[in-house]
């Protein structure tokens, strides 16, 4: 789980050119990313962790923070 | 006239996005481009974003993946011969557009209306090279088209009232609405937005701030959803550059001269989202 979190934090930090992101930050509300980033983020998760998100998981609520994404990824591995 | 079959010419960013948007409304689309590679890329992108469309449109039900079958991807302009309406989205370059319209005018029925999806080329000038200037209208769709209900619609000198009414009704049927403006270089949107983007590039060039700082000021101080440099990256820096050149040549006003840094980035192939790098870096 920690490894997933680390990878995700590094990816989101790099992609958003941010100095520091906390795992519980709502990345969409903080204005760190525009909403189109969600698609890029999901494609990254699927490729990196070799999983496929279900239709009902394609929801901004479920990927709003690095912690949420890590939990989602972990539950599917 | 009922518009059911629509020709979309140009399968770049905006053409693909438009085809994607119309596809969601079950319209039949003929998407034409001179490049097979561009068409393949367009198909891949449309398939991919179709998977996410319900998420962005806040729908519970996912869209049917087979909707993509409503789009015919082709390099053959003659496939447009039985379309009820054509929207052209080719490069913002007069010579290219001129050639396309001469062909379209020959291929399409006389009653077919041509929507010029441009951010800065004169609608009146396009109308003048066709035999149907009354049926030529500017339609500046914003990217991504399926998420942007508002369309800047431009009335050329000869555009008829019936064409305007028809287009307004059509847009309503595909979940959009028109703001109608007059034909003048850059219309409203680009005349203003390109000054923002160009000046933002100049602040980077002059070392005033970093891209994320410039964008942060627009987002967090002015409450814009995106900053000017993110927007430029999304549009494509080559497109922004070409549009600035058109504005500069139209007004002969130095305020529209493209920033040298912008020209340099275009020369270096740093075109923004579509090439993976512009003012920001993007992953696949």
From TrEMBL, chain A:
Write down what this protein is called: Acyl carrier protein
| UniProt xrefs under Pfam families | PP-binding
Limits of the Carrier domain:
1-77
Gene3D superfamilies recorded? ACP-like
InterPro entries per record: ACP-like_sf, PP-bd_ACP
Query: PROSITE patterns, alphabetically?
Result: CARRIER (PS50075)
UniProtKB/TrEMBL annotation, chain B:
Please give the Gene Ontology molecular function terms for this protein.
Answer: NAD+ binding; oxidoreductase activity, acting on the CH-OH group of donors, NAD or NADP as acceptor
Can you supply a Gene Ontology BP term from the record?
A: fatty acid metabolic process
Keyword NAD listed? The answer is: yes
Name all 3-hydroxyacyl-CoA dehydrogenase NAD binding domain ranges. 5-183
The record's section on SUPFAM superfamilies has: 6-phosphogluconate dehydrogenase C-terminal domain-like, NAD(P)-binding Rossmann-fold domains
3-hydroxyacyl-CoA dehydrogenase C-terminal domain mapped to chain residues: 186-282
Pathway in which the depicted protein is active: Lipid metabolism; butanoate metabolism
| Alphabetized UniProt keyword annotations | NAD, Oxidoreductase
Under the heading InterPro entries, the entry gives:
3-OHacyl-CoA_DH (IPR022694), 3-OHacyl-CoA_DH_NAD-bd (IPR006176), 3HC_DH_C (IPR006108), 6-PGluconate_DH-like_C_sf (IPR008927), 6PGD_dom2 (IPR013328), NAD(P)-bd_dom_sf (IPR036291)
Sites binding NAD(+) sit at 10-15, 33, 92, 97, 119, 143, 274
Which Pfam family, giving just one, matches this sequence?
Answer: 3HCDH
Q: Where is this site: Important for catalytic activity?
A: 140
For this chain, the family text in UniProt reads: Belongs to the 3-hydroxyacyl-CoA dehydrogenase family.
Q: What is this protein called?
A: 3-hydroxybutyryl-CoA dehydrogenase
Which lineage?
Bacteria, Bacillati, Bacillota, Clostridia, Eubacteriales
